[in-house]
Amino acid sequence: MSNARKVRAYTNIALIKYWGKRDDALILPTSSSLSLTLDAFYTETAVSFDASCEKDTFYLNDKIQDEAATLKVSRFLNLFRETAGLKTPATIRSTNYVPTAAGLASSASGMAALAGAANLATGLNLSPQELSIFARQGSGSATRSVYGGFVEWQKGTSSADSYAVKVDDADWDIGMVVVVVNKKQKELSSREGMKQTVTTSPFYSGWVESTAVDLVNIKKAIRDQDFEQVGEITESNGMKMHGTMLGANPPISYWEPDSVVAMQLVRQLRKQGIPCYFTMDAGPNVKVLCRLSDSQKIKTAFLNYFNEEQLIISGPGSDLKEVSL
């Protein structure tokens, strides 16, 4: 299987959140978003096309996956097959170095790695921009995992111009401490939570308007390397997103008691003069944006309440890249 290729993609955590679609089929967002790619969490995926196989086969973490999971991967691969004029079945082997479906953006790194490997295995050799458009159609946040550093997903006007662009390498003492409150699969998926919020929350239109302002302001703060301003906007934007969920019918909350403990700890550390800011996605885990040089101090403070294995320090991740099989 000489066409087998393997790619690593890093996950990303949105600082300006993606929450809501205007087109479910093409995964076009209601607003643009901005993220930080992290080097501590990634997915490696190998794709090989083999005419001797009868159908697509998908292994995740060395376990063969059921029909539903395989169908999702097959549909995504069809974007590449159709573009390349192929009908050959594929074997997909993916290893997640991220807990799946726990609000740690495993779908972002997973679909970006699959896109990267499929791109090479089909010989399409798409540009990063084209690859970002393809990745978006597997998972919205995957469009941003094509790149490292700070990345903006521009909502665009159509599928052709809804893609990610790198904003900054994030090479100026930026990091995160990820607090893994619970790594179990969540009961309500992001996709379902998003849909419920968009259709029922009276706060949603205000969220879309204010997010556009947040995006302009955070990009200026990144250009100025104003860490405190980046942090303040990040924390505010994340809480607004959760506010829209609380306004949904029925109300949605991904928080657990330890999520609130982590947020309170961040506030305490700020009072003590350590600049750090929290954000949360659709899950209970808390991400603490900080200066990488402060990350060990922050982790030490959190060890009074959390176990060592619940606290993961990460620096900025890089662009997706091919790795050896």
From TrEMBL:
Query: Pfam families from the xrefs?
Result: MDD_C (PF18376), MVD-like_N (PF22700)
E.C. number: 4.1.1.33
What is this enzyme's class at the first EC digit?
lyase
Per the record, the coiled-coil ranges are none
| GO cellular component term, pick one | cytosol
Question: InterPro entries recorded for this chain?
Answer: GHMP_kinase_C_sf, Mev_decarb, Mev_diP_decarb, MVD-like_N, Mvd1_C, Ribosomal_Su5_D2-typ_SF, Ribsml_uS5_D2-typ_fold_subgr
Annotated Diphosphomevalonate decarboxylase-like N-terminal domain residues: 9-164
Task: Tell me which residues make up the Mvd1 C-terminal domain.
Answer: 176-310
What UniProt keywords are attached to this protein's entry? Answer: ATP-binding, Lipid biosynthesis, Lipid metabolism, Lyase, Nucleotide-binding
Q: What family, per the record?
A: Belongs to the diphosphomevalonate decarboxylase family.
The name this protein carries in UniProt is diphosphomevalonate decarboxylase
Q: Native species of this protein? A: Carnobacterium alterfunditum
